[in-house]
Write a structure and sequence with these properties.
alpha/beta; TIM Barrel; two-stranded antiparallel sheet; 9 helices; globular; disordered N terminus
């Protein structure tokens, strides 16, 4: 009876009040008592284009399939991309991927109607399976202070976004954490408990600024189920917190290995289903890539993987994202999806329904 009364009041007063129902429902991460959390049912098709401002500063332009110069954010929407992923470094040389640069890109993404995923590396430069180097200013601090530095950096960055009316739907705590982060303190093979503490610190800091943000832990090699079980069993047994599981998938593709991706995609699907069954987590493939000069293979790879993600148990396969597809003749990176003239290749059509 009490619930019915409240519902009646909300409905009758709807023109005059906004607090009865959640606003910005596409970003809302629902939770009621013990009911498992679920992300609003949107399939996220994304691109990490964190290099774009640096490329533009070096006089790179982007063009549609007809050769017309087009803003990269406008161009990506033509391929049904709805999400932009942005990496964050702490004190990077030149400022690229620092807070101010991230804010510039996030404003452009928000202005063009994209969902935003923030990817914290917790480093001054690249963090990946082979290196998880502490920022220089954090290098020699005690573990308690290291956690506090991670917490404050997370809060400072997200608050800068919030102050500019930008709401990321997802925040990634660390990048490709195959063996933890902030080595050696958070190296999972050395101290799983400290790794879990760092993840939880980032989780809690994120929720402090954006309570409805989805918090992801990201591991590479999405085909490697043993690796994912080790990481997430370790986090779970040490009270680590996360909402979603992210993975990378870069199958070896060249002119002689044109079908290898099929095996990797199948293994990735099996791993995603296991993550759902084992941890009840939503799963995302947040990094993919394929050789820019083999666009037909790239198209087939993306199309097949997108379909497989949508087949994940309980509709918990939630998205697919290309890493730096806009790259061409840049940093010697060959796994983009634009040709040498700055136009999208056929691979980008793989994102279209």
């Amino acid at each position: 009876m009490k619930f019915g009364y409240i519902l009646f009041v909300c409905i009758t007063m709807l023109p005059f009040m906004s607090s009865c129902f959640p606003t910005d429902s596409e970003y809302v991460y629902q939770k009621q008592d013990s009911i498992p959390k679920t992300i609003t049912p949107i399939f996220y098709k994304g691109a990490d284009i964190s290099w774009v401002t640096e490329m533009e500063a070096n006089n790179y332009n982007f063009y549609d399939s007809n050769g017309k110069q087009t803003d990269i954010f406008v161009l990506l929407k033509q391929y049904q991309i709805n999400t932009i992923r942005l990496r964050v470094w702490v004190h990077p040389n030149g400022g690229w991927n620092g807070i101010n640069d991230v804010l510039v890109k996030a404003k452009r993404a928000a202005a063009n109607g994209f969902y935003i995923l923030i990817d914290f590396h917790y480093s001054d430069w690249w963090a990946d399976p082979g290196k998880q180097t502490k920022p220089a200013t954090w290098a020699n601090v005690p573990f308690a202070q290291l956690k506090d530095s991670l917490r404050m950096h997370t809060i400072e960055t997200l608050t800068a976004l919030k102050n500019n009316n930008i709401t990321p739907f997802m925040v990634q705590i660390g990048n490709e954490l195959d063996n933890g982060l902030l080595w050696p303190d958070g190296k999972a093979s050395v101290n799983m408990n400290q790794f879990a503490q760092l993840i939880t610190t980032g989780y809690d800091a994120t929720k402090l600024v954006f309570p409805n943000a989805v918090v992801m832990v990201h591991v590479s090699n999405g085909y490697n189920n043993d690796l994912f079980r080790w990481i997430f069993d370790g986090l779970k047994s040490n009270n680590g917190k996360w909402d979603a599981i992210g993975m990378s998938l870069y199958p070896p593709i060249d002119s002689k290995q044109t079908n290898t991706w099929q095996t990797y995609n199948a293994q990735c699907l099996a791993n995603m289903n296991d993550m759902v069954n084992r941890y009840n987590s939503d799963v995302f493939v947040v990094e993919i890539g394929s050789p820019f000069d083999l666009p037909e293979i790239g198209y087939n790879f993306i199309t097949d993987l997108l379909k497989k993600i949508k087949l994940v148990n309980n509709n918990k396969g939630r998205g697919i994202m290309f890493w730096e597809p806009e790259c061409y003749n840049w940093m010697n990176y060959k796994l983009g999806a634009f040709d040498s003239q700055g136009k999208p290749t056929k691979a980008m059509n793989g994102f279209k329904d």
